[in-house]
Write the structure tokens for this entry.
Amino acid sequence: MSTAYVAVYDTLADWEIGHLVVELRTGRFTGVPWDVVTVGETLESVVTMGGMRVVPDVTIADVAPDAGDLLVLAGSGQWDVGGSEAFAKLAGQFLDAGVPVAAICGATAGLARAGLLDERKHTSAAKEYLQATGYQGSDLYVDARAVVDRDLITAGPDSPVQFARAVMERLELADERKREAYEGVFHRADPAAYATLVG
């Protein structure tokens, strides 16, 4: 079974990764369930932005890129104050090893500060948001809901469904018709897409 490591830290933005984590864990529309493992800097519980308490399964020290198939990084107030550097470093290790990293909202700023967006197409909340980090990759910024460039998937905070779809695309989970139906159901509320999604 494939493994998705999901980073958890205080003020994690629950909604940004909710669609993705559910689809990975259940495989309900892809037919391929994944093992979802939460990763903390320590094993102490964290409290998400929505007030849910999460106890990490493992610590960063227990994680190696060759033991996983994906690293997921949600936004959080931590990223905007220069925190979570250990997770940005872990993301660099995953990317160096050719293992996909999916980052949304504030996590993209953390990756920008770490230089991980300087040579990859990417998106975020806004171009100006990343430019404030002083990074060198602004010419590769794409104004889109989600962007996939090799092993990096990025999205802004308003695009959790597109983020999930983009990760499924990079991981080759479900075909394009089903991924389009997924966005149709969960983003556009298109009842006609449901039959394709569950078919």
User: Anything to note?
Assistant: The first strand starts at residue 3 and ends at 7. The first helix runs from residue 14 to 26. The domain at 3-198 is CATH 3.40.50.880 (Rossmann fold).
